[in-house]
Specification:
- The chain has about 140 residues and is mostly helical.
- The mean pLDDT is about 85.
- The protein is elongated.
């Protein structure tokens, strides 16, 4: 039990750090677009913000799910990549169908994957709030 808890916690910390870096890069990119008005940003800032935010969120989500799937594969919990990814997606999004389950030695990983998903979706929300606060901040300065 402790080995699953330790490994899962470590993976969660690393993948959350990756998501935070991804969101920091995205926020910096949006600030740069706002300051330079590059690529026609001044004409459609909301469309750019939504499009860029959606792509970065999708990228962070994909990195997280693949990270968990690779962990499951590395631990030998799945025979092929497809069920590992399926389980990671179902668990990460807290849907958890229950049609595929981990053995008793590793089932704590499922809970950690779900907790990681909840934290990551919280980061998505904070990121979107930050994105939509850009115009307000710029008007104040």
């Amino acid at each position: 039990m402790l080995h699953a808890l330790f490994i899962g916690s470590l993976v969660m910390i690393v993948l959350l750090a990756v998501s935070i870096v991804i969101f920091a890069v995205a926020a910096r990119m949006l600030r740069w677009l706002d300051e330079t008005h590059a690529f026609g940003y001044a004409r459609m800032p909301l469309a750019y913000d939504l499009g860029i935010a959606a792509m970065w969120i999708l990228f962070a989500l994909t990195c997280s799910v693949w990270g968990w799937a690779f962990l499951y594969m590395a631990l030998g919990l799945f025979d092929s990549l497809e069920p590992a990814i399926y389980f990671a997606i179902a668990t990460f999004t807290t849907v958890g169908y229950g049609d595929i389950v981990l053995g008793a030695d590793w089932r704590l990983l499922a809970g950690l994957t779900a907790a990681h998903g909840l934290l990551t979706f919280g980061l998505f929300t904070a990121f979107l709030v930050e994105i939509f606060d850009f115009p307000t901040r710029n008007r104040r300065s």
